[in-house]
Design a protein that fits this description.
Largest sheet: none
Structural class: mainly alpha
Strand content: under 5%
Number of domains: 1
Distance between the termini: 106 Å
Radius of gyration: 29 Å
Number of strands: 0
Length: 157
């Protein structure tokens, strides 16, 4: 049991660290949106996705350990575990609670980021549509001038 609890504790620490990194990257994303730094924004979004993928792996492994713990010892919650004997059982829920709080903060930042990204997309979409309209106007006016491409001939008269 001690070995499984130690592994779960390590996974909970890893999950907490990943949540801290995701929060930091989400704050960076907010800054990139405000400064309209599209390249850095795309880079940060990629980094955040990598972190999210790591969290998914950590969570899957932790779920597997919990299942094994329950099958082997019937422990459904860490409250049922003898904390004097297995002090790891006390820290796991604490880490998970901290992680949950970080994800709440990330969620609220991400809601604001999503709205700001939509506004930024709209701004660039309007700019692109303006360029497209300008191109159509140039093509329309260029057709009616009757100017043909000239050919210069080098003849002596």
């Amino acid at each position: 049991m001690k070995h499984l609890l130690r592994e779960l504790l390590e996974l909970s620490f890893s999950g907490l660290e990943e949540a801290k990194e995701i929060l930091s990257i989400t704050k960076d994303i907010q800054n990139h949106i405000q400064t309209e730094d599209i390249d850095s924004l795309n880079q940060a979004l990629g980094c955040r996705q990598e972190r999210i993928s790591r969290v998914n792996l950590i969570n899957a492994e932790a779920d597997e350990k919990r299942k094994k713990l329950k099958e082997m010892f019937g422990a459904t919650a860490f409250k049922e575990t003898d904390k004097a004997k297995y002090h790891e059982a006390d820290h796991i829920p604490d880490n998970e609670a901290l992680t949950k709080e970080l994800y709440k903060e990330i969620y609220h930042l991400e809601k604001a980021n999503l709205k700001n990204m939509e506004d930024l997309l709209k701004k660039y979409k309007d700019s692109i549509e303006g360029v497209q309209k300008n191109k159509k106007a140039v093509n329309a006016y260029g057709r009616n001038t009757g100017i043909k491409q000239s050919v210069l001939l080098n003849h002596e008269v």
